[in-house]
Every structure is written in structure tokens, then in C-alpha cells.
Write a structure and sequence with these properties.
The protein has about 300 residues and is α/β, with parallel strands linked by helices. The chain has 14 helices and eight strands. The protein has a four-stranded parallel sheet. Strands 4-5-3-6 form a four-stranded antiparallel sheet. A hairpin with a 2-residue loop joins strand 4 (about 155-160) and strand 5. The longest helix has 23 residues, at about 60-80. The radius of gyration is 18 Å and the shape is globular.
Length: about 300
Amino acid sequence: MSMGLLFPGQGSQHPGMGRELAMRYPVARETFEEADDTLGFGLSGLAWEGSSTVLTATENAQPALYVHSLAVYRVVRERLGAVAAAAGHSLGELSAHGAAGTYSFADGLRAVRRRGELMARADTTTPGGMAAVLGLRAEAVAELCREAAEAGMTIVPANLNAKSQIVVSGEKAGIEWVARVGADRGAKRVVKLSVSAAFHSPLMEPVAAEFREMLDGISFVPPSFPVVSNVTGEAVGDPDRIRRLLVRQLTSPVRWVDCIARMRAMGVGRFAELGPGNVLAGLNRRNARGVPTVTLGAPEAIEATEDWP
């Protein structure tokens, strides 16, 4: 049965992430050590012993997630068998390309750290936020955003996570407007997210050019297995196009429903979420009903997984 790999994004981090993995598996420990050497500071200590507040900071959470996901991948890759496709949610797409060898581990880590720094800085120049709209279809949420835009507010669908779980992103006045009017339109809840800026919205445009410069200095090669783009919902193999789409991802919605549908169409019959938490496995209960999904982030989960290909 063909395997699909899923890599989580920001929000899945937690204090202590990766510590037990590094204690149990030498290759995981070496991955964290390589990360510390690459960045020139103790990312491993930050992930294993840092406070929730420090780890949640965008410039720290993103590289910590990338390293944890790649450490898990290095531990399990010999057991996975042939990988039919991979996808990552937002930051996780860069982890997916790291696993696929689109760029070196070190280059990917430096890019991820820079991405986190830029996205964190965006909030100081163009303050904004994000909120999950639960219980409304994507079309209804898009209409809310259109109406808000007509009233002069910047607010857009940012994460199309499931049919009735859409995250909007934009200026704070737009978030408040969607929360108020969305409740009148039948939204079950509108939950503001603990993020530092309006990710995947036009408010990220001021930092996109700097991220493009960062990626232009990195060598890209075709991935060793297909990686599905958040922007297009399609697998992309051309290195230059991958680079362009990773920049566009900053200001474009994460089309997660389309990503999972494309992986299913590519023959994926089982999924593995590589990294901390189980957010993507939870979404698969709606996006890929009946398709087995395992979460591989801790040694207990890795050792408990049966029926490896």
C-alpha cells in the first residue's frame, strides 16, 4: 500500500519536543546536533528545555518543527518503503522538501529560520491575526471575506483545512468583523489563533521579496519523491517552480483539502504524520476518511507502529 508523508506546521510545537527521540535514536540526536552547528545556537536546548513562550515564537517554532520532522524522517525512512507523495502544512512544506532532498538539510534549516524571522517581523510593520471559522463551508467564508474587503478591510481565507474548518487571516478589524457576522451566518465558532501575524495573506507581501532572495541563494534539485504544493494542490518537480511557489505560499492560502485529495489520486493508501502532535492525522478523519494515518513523533509511537511496508 503506497505511503504518503505529512509534515505539520506551526502550532504543533511543544516544550520537550524531540528530546526522547534524540535519547533513543543516535540519528535523531545527530540531526539536532547538526541543527545547533548550522544555526550557531542551541536550538536543541530551546526545543527540549525552553519555555512554551520562547518556543512558540515564530522564529523559533519553525526551525524546531523542521528539525524534529527531519529527525523523525531519518529514524523511520528505511521502514517506510516507497513514498508515493508528501505534503506539509505551511512550514511543513519546507520540511517535506527537506525530506525529499530538494535542498540540503542545512540550507533548508537556514531558510526556515529566516522565514520565521521574516514572518515574525511582519507583525511589527503590518499587524494582523488569524482565526478558525468552524461550521461554515469554504464558499461561505470566502463570501464573508469578500464583503469585508468591500468595507475596506484586508481579510482572506488562509488555511482550507477541511470542508468546515477554514482559517481566515488579515488585519484585526477584519478578524473581528468575520467573527461577528460569521456567527450570524451560522458559524458554530470563530476561534482566534495564537499567532504573531497574518500568515498566508497579503499582509505578508512586504517580507516575501526578502524570502525570495534567501531561496535564490540556495541550490534546489528535483525532489526524490513528489511533494504537493500548498499553493496549487499539485505535485511540483521543477526546482525553479518549487522555489517560486514557496515564496508565493507566504501570501497564498494553504489548500490542504486539495493537497490530501491529490495525494489520494496519486495512489496514497496510508499516511504517516512525521513530527510532533497529531493535527494532520485529526484532519484526515475528515479529509481522508477510512484511510489509515499514523502519527510518528515519539519513540513509543514509532515502535508501536505495526504493518510497516
